[in-house]
């Protein structure tokens, strides 16, 4: 009788994602992953033909994790883009390594920022529709302008240069939204 494999593809992916969150994408190596999983590298390459396939799955897991994070974030504002922006900034502060992979790495074959932000639920489209319903003449242009600001805030949170409270951030985003809508 053959021995039952004790290391599963799911275990490998879970541990690879944990390594990403703890140490960063560059640290997701076969040796580190084997050590974290408690096995040799052989089961990794039995389950994944190469590290590229594994990293594609880790990237996909990270994208799903980001979408779940946004979906689980508080929805407090009637102002379009504000809650999504707050979630994005908070994600950058809380999940630095995952944020870097998704939004700053240029991962080959990765999704663009707009696609990641939209997710499977169409978050950006929903926010653009809300802005249009609120009377914004060019909601797509508004999204682009406000998102450049939001992305800057998120990047500053990675380096520790963004020290506003959540309330201050919310007020700032509200002010930016209002100034852009007046100018459009």
Task: Characterise this structure.
By secondary structure, this protein is mainly α. It has two domains: 1-48, Orthogonal Bundle (Arc Repressor Mutant, subunit A); 63-183. Helices cover 70% and strands 0% of the residues. It has ten helices and no strands. It has helices at residues 9-23, 30-37, 42-47, 51-72, 82-94, 96-104, 113-118, 123-133, 139-159, 166-183. The longest helix has 22 residues, at 51-72. The chain starts with 8 loop residues before the first helix and ends with a helix. The model has no long low-confidence stretch (mean pLDDT 92).
Question: Helices and strands, in N-to-C order?
Answer: HHHHHHHHHH
- Tell me the number of structural domains: 2
The first-to-last residue Cα distance is: 73 Å
Number of strands: 0
Largest sheet: none
Share in β-strands? under 5%
The radius of gyration is: 20 Å
Class from secondary-structure proportions: mainly alpha
Topology:
Elements: H1 9-23, H2 30-37, H3 42-47, H4 51-72, H5 82-94, H6 96-104, H7 113-118, H8 123-133, H9 139-159, H10 166-183
Please summarize what this structure is.
The protein has 184 residues and is an all-alpha fold. Helices cover 70% and strands 0% of the residues.
Descriptive tags:
single chain, 0% strand, mainly alpha, 10 helices, 184 residues, Arc Repressor Mutant, subunit A
